[in-house]
Amino acid sequence: MSSPLVFEPIAIIHSGYKEKFGIPRQPGLAVSMTATVELLPPYNSADAVRGLEQCSHIWLLFIFSACVDKGWSPLVRPPRLGGNEKLGVFASRSPFRPNPIGLSPVKLEGIRCEGSQVFLDVSGADLLDQTPIVDIKPYLPYSDSLPQAEYDIAPQIDMLKLPVQFSATAQAALERHSNRLKQPLQQQIEEVLRCDPRPAYHKQKAQQRTYGIRLHDLNIRWEVNAQAILVSQIDINPDDDLKA
Amino acid sequence: MSSPLVFEPIAIIHSGYKEKFGIPRQPGLAVSMTATVELLPPYNSADAVRGLEQCSHIWLLFIFSACVDKGWSPLVRPPRLGGNEKLGVFASRSPFRPNPIGLSPVKLEGIRCEGSQVFLDVSGADLLDQTPIVDIKPYLPYSDSLPQAEYDIAPQIDMLKLPVQFSATAQAALERHSNRLKQPLQQQIEEVLRCDPRPAYHKQKAQQRTYGIRLHDLNIRWEVNAQAILVSQIDINPDDDLKA
């Protein structure tokens, strides 16, 4: 097989994650964030997904499109190792890989065929909005689920156990935007922030600093102190506002 | 991202499966068949796999190279459904897909760095010899293992529960070739045949028929009757003989 391997997107994802910062580093951690997989022509036929409704979970094989053309190197510094320890790229799930393919198991919430459009509603996806998808496969528990597998480097996720608190203005904005977007915004924010998207060196220094994450068309400002994760402000993102 | 997605093999697998017929239809079913993943330049550095020895299992993302250029169709007839029922290609693990990428979790038995060569020894792989690999990822049990997942179409594998018997000549050949190849050939043959590679319509008719599968450089002839799976002959495959 000497011909080049050329792939094309079969679908695109529509997700509330509008930038890399803040996306949980593995799928399944923020379950209240739903996303929609839109099949693209000529793959958007009801036939192509026949029987898929019997799956509780599916694999999304996608392209780390934000990392394409940024190259790869044999060693990476995974955030979960504090950004200091180097690991081989094939021993990591880093997006900067020779072939920038990502692999995520997600929960299949529903399938909608509307005219010539086919949409898969999924939850737990850790994919940036507009990510191109190159394959969809059923999750086969008997072969894919290996609870006996071990990887000492990543034994579990360290979630922040702090309560998430909202300032009075953030609380008011939360209710307003939840209604407008028809999204369980409070739960989505709490899940994303408990995954603690701060860089490892910020966590270690415990500096008081305000961060922003973008969810849907919102910019959410927050900080962490010893007692709580405090959401101070929720505003329409200026970029999204201009586009609207 | 409008540029085409061009991937290149980062590795190639050396496996005892020399033809599609007979390969277990999912990984992990024939655990005594080991295979070797040979990293290709410029990806063959010890750095690129640093830390991977801490993984018990890895994902191989590979190209269904025997199916490339054969096209895809929205509906497939999975062998496990008897070859009659049609299923959407995205609801199946059929190799005939828009982007012919395969996904297999395998057990990592060892890593060998010999000079500028890097080899990964794996077991349980369901990959044809010489299959190109486009990515290697650590299996992360906390996100990849979903024992609660359900897919009614594929609840479990129907293994043949019949004993595997060897004719006198097959038994003699078995011992000779096991020693020569330094492979647990008897176990490999039994595992592969218990997965019952016969086409579904042959199983239903229960016809007495001799089949051949190729493992390593051997052609193994076998048949199934009501009492047993009988291996009648084990010979060097003529093609392999000519090459030797």
UniProtKB/TrEMBL annotation, chains A, B:
GO terms for molecular function: methyltransferase activity. The lineage of its organism: Bacteria, Pseudomonadati, Pseudomonadota, Gammaproteobacteria, Oceanospirillales. It comes from Amphritea opalescens. Signal peptide: none annotated. PANTHER family: TRNA (ADENINE(37)-N6)-METHYLTRANSFERASE. GO terms for biological process: methylation. Keywords: Methyltransferase, S-adenosyl-L-methionine, Transferase. Residues 7-148 form the TsaA-like domain. Pfam families: TrmO_C, TrmO_N. Belongs to the tRNA methyltransferase O family. It comes from the Bacteria. CDD domains: UPF0066 (cd09281). This is tRNA (N6-threonylcarbamoyladenosine(37)-N6)-methyltransferase TrmO.
